[in-house]
Amino acid sequence: MVPRHSRYPNPRPAIPVSGFRIPNSGFGTIRIPQSAIRNPIPAFSLDRRPALPRLSAPMPGAARPFPFPHWLSCLVVLCGLLGCSSSSAPKKSAAPAKPLFNPPIPVPAPAPAPVPAAGPRVMLGIDVLEADGFAAVKGKKIGLLTHPAGVNRKGVPTIEVLRRAPGVQLVALYAVEHGLYNEHPAEKYFPDAIDPRTNIPVYSLYSGKGKNFRPTPAQLKPIDALVIDLQDIGTRSYTFSGAMKSAMEICFAHGKEVIVLDRPNPLGGLKVGGPPLDAEWMSDVGRFRVPYVHGLTMGELAQLAKATQAPGGLAVTDAQRAAAKLTVIPMRGWTRAMRWSETGLTFAPTSTRVRDFGAVQGYPMTGLGTMFTGFSHGVGNQHDFRGVWHAKIPFDVLEKDLRALNLPGLGFRKISVPNAKTGKPAVGLYVEINDYDAWQPCDLSFWLMKFACRLGPKNPFAALTDAQRRTFLVHVGSKAFYDDLVAKGARIDIDAWLRQWREQARVYQEQSKKYWLYR
């Protein structure tokens, strides 16, 4: 390296700390580290070499010139002293002389990346979009409707993937229930804001101001196309599919393209069941007239909505429907028989109480059955939708009654978990899925309703307020079932209703095949 203070007769100008260029070196610009400039190699000068030893010794008599052979011998000694090496090692080791210039140490080539283990077998819609060079969004000003589960198969948020995509302008974000980062609890409205992580406007589709939680024309004005990347859980009353449908309606009414990045149905594409939705009870927790467990992906639901007239499909004019541009970016590697645990993907929480695949499975099993029944789902602050208990029913009695139902594919076991609030153990029954193929996702919920009617002389469903009655109906979806439950209470024939719904689900599944993107 070059010393800080040159001792050459004509010193060179100071070298800037940012680096310098060696002319005609073939190496381009070489950057000198700051540490080298702060700690330069000590100065060395050719005029400070060690003094040479005397070449003659005092001799008696008058001085006389060396004869030639003697000069030759001295020259050999001198060369040995000034040369680069010596054939014999010195008696005392000395520190090696520092060179005049130390060339920079070349940056070693990075070690080859280890061959990764087999990654997720499923490529999500965002992965396919990226693999295709973002062709569907390049050159467009786009908005993104997403949530925390909107990530690629490596776990990188879709927001970041699109924000850094070449030729793509992400100019607006749209947030559904629970917010952009799961910062809001269920059914909690929130206003528009600026995303502190990206400084991009966030438009709330859960502000409580707009009908059916759809974006307004003003919120759509900055964009050419709306990209939707929402992870559904395969159950109708989960609000994300309804948010997508509402956004599609307003986009098509104002000439905006919709691009859906598809994701797996965590329950698989073959699980269907539960009551279909009556048209009069459609709401933000039910915007599709499908069975409670519908068996479709978000991309397939989008295709169904575009092709179907209201109320089950989009409430747009025929001209708007014909002009509407819907692009679905399908997955690669996913099949209908594949449940989430077989995809190789890491499950990102979709809401504050659906934090894992176990809760996804439990949502249709216990969610409806714990409304207005006195039953609770979860045990302590764990096992959301997978644990059940009732304050008025002893655990051994509840376990015996549930086991006696012989529900296909299900088992029950008593569990105890620490309760952070009380300091005492919380006890409940954990619902196990022992046979996934035989499992009927919704059956348990309706048996819990019947059990609730046996607990006392009064039918709890007959005593619902108007608001509670509406809540029950928009979630369950069947006015006929509600009326039967109110009229008969503990005498209701749950098996008959389950058989009816299975037959309706079979017909629905056959009809919905025209929208399938996967087999």
Number of helices: 14
What is the rounded Rg? 38 Å
Number of strands: 13
Stretches with pLDDT under 50, minimum 5 residues: 1-117
First-to-last CA distance: 66 Å
Q: What's the CATH topology label of one domain?
A: Rossmann fold
| Beta-strand share of residues | 5-15%
The 3D shape can be described as: globular
Explain how this protein is built:
With 519 residues, the chain is α/β, with parallel strands linked by helices. Among the domains are: 125-342, 3-Layer(aba) Sandwich (Rossmann fold), CATH 3.40.50; 357-477, Aspartate Aminotransferase, domain 1 (Alpha-Beta Complex). It has 14 helices and 13 strands. It has helices spanning 34-38, 68-82, 125-131, 158-163, 217-220, 240-253, 298-307, 318-323, 357-366, 395-404, 443-453, 466-476, 479-488, 494-512, and strands at residues 20-21, 29-30, 141-146, 169-175, 193-194, 201-204, 225-229, 257-261, 326-329, 375-377, 387-390, 410-418, 425-433. Strands 5-6-4-3-7-8-9 form a seven-stranded mixed β-sheet. The radius of gyration is 38 Å and the shape is globular. Residues 1-117 have low confidence and may be disordered.
